[in-house]
Specification:
By secondary structure, this protein is α+β, with helices and mostly antiparallel strands. Among the domains are: 136-196; 201-325, Winged helix-like DNA-binding domain superfamily/Winged helix DNA-binding domain (Arc Repressor Mutant, subunit A); 334-389, Winged helix-like DNA-binding domain superfamily/Winged helix DNA-binding domain (Arc Repressor Mutant, subunit A, Orthogonal Bundle), CATH 1.10.10. It is 57% helix and 11% strand. It has helices at 3-13, 17-24, 30-42, 46-60, 65-81, 89-101, 105-121, 125-133, 142-158, 162-179, 182-196, 213-221, 247-259, 266-273, 281-298, 333-342, 350-357, 361-373; strands at 200-204, 207-211, 225-228, 233-236, 239-242, 264-265, 302-306, 310-315, 321-325, 378-380, 387-389. The strands form 3 sheets. Strands 2-1-9-3-4-5 form a 6-stranded mixed beta sheet. Strands 6-8-7 form a 3-stranded antiparallel beta sheet. A two-stranded antiparallel ribbon has the order 10-11. The longest helix has 18 residues, at 162-179. The protein is elongated, with a radius of gyration of 25 Å. The two termini are 45 Å apart.
Amino acid sequence: MDILILNASRALAAGDPLGALNRVALRDDAPALALRGIAMAQLGDFVRAKALLRRAGKAFGAEDAAARARCVVAEAEVALASRDLAWPEKSLAGARATLQAHGDAVNAAHAAQLQARRQLLTGRLEEAGHTLAGVDASGLPAASRAIHELIRGGIALRRVQASAASAALTCAADAARQAGIPALLAEVDNAFKALNAPAGRRVGQGVACDLTLGEVEALLASNALIIDACRNVLRREGQVVSLASRPVLFTLARMLAEAWPQDVSRELLIAHAFRTGFQDESHRVRLRVEIGRLRAAMRPLAGVQATKLGFVLKPGGEPEVVVLARPVDVDDRDQAAVLACLADGQAWSSSALALALGASQRTVQRALDALAAAAQAQPLGHGRARRWMTPPVPGFTTSLLLPLVAAP
């Protein structure tokens, strides 16, 4: 390797893309194209970075499989940074296998970390943990160790494990300081802010207060009956009843929980659950039917008793009843999930949001339009080039708003 390529590589590893470009900007050989592509990615010009990396991959030729694989890994990193979630994941897995076969452990580990980050971004936590467990980070450079711990911390955040997340982020901070890369230090700092930011709101007995992730973890471990409005589930001592696909039942459960130990009138339940201002006997009949369905669904956790005025929640034993609400004032579940993705500060396309959330693109587009009307999201560009961002970075963590995808 010639001295210019070597120095440019060292500049990129130290987070100095302009220093790297000063050495290889006028060269068009394969190694220089690859380094220029990585430098442009670090500067945020993802379109130019993709083009340069593809040119570099073709320029290396079939005889240099390891170099081509490194270009694929770099292109995958650009795709992840630009939230191009349609980029083929199989290509990254193939490049990782090639690098392992050629003894390039550092870049093979980086490919695995990228794969884990993509899985984490799309809610596949079990897969992300399995992928990360296959990487031995002890012998990696400081920057790679920091990324490894950041991913571990991200998985713990999504699993509502505050202590594990804090430990991982502390290790990430130590490694980032050793690496001395400003962008990496900033990423660790943002992760700590997410850990310490409000993760939810506790609502009950007419009082609401913000909770950090650690406080949410403690609440979930208590014997309280929790109406989890972040996931639309009911929780109590390890038992979980999902009402995510039954919004009317969840609305009734939440209203009863917010009023507990008092009852809620039939008129109020009908107005909110059925979203109607007009009420007649048919609505009261429907309410009795839905209350019966709610009783059956939540029987392992609590009961519902009729009163003269309406209905009251009756948890077995004497547990506390708490509503765990979203940390932001967004009533619609789809809007909350979209806002949680946008909170990372990146520019997202509606198709990428649909892939990350496991929703249809039309559902995501409706949520984006509603958020834009409320000045909580803003579009950039037009047509297929349109991307979405939040105007300021919200001051809340996104862990409880993002959906989870069960492992196959």
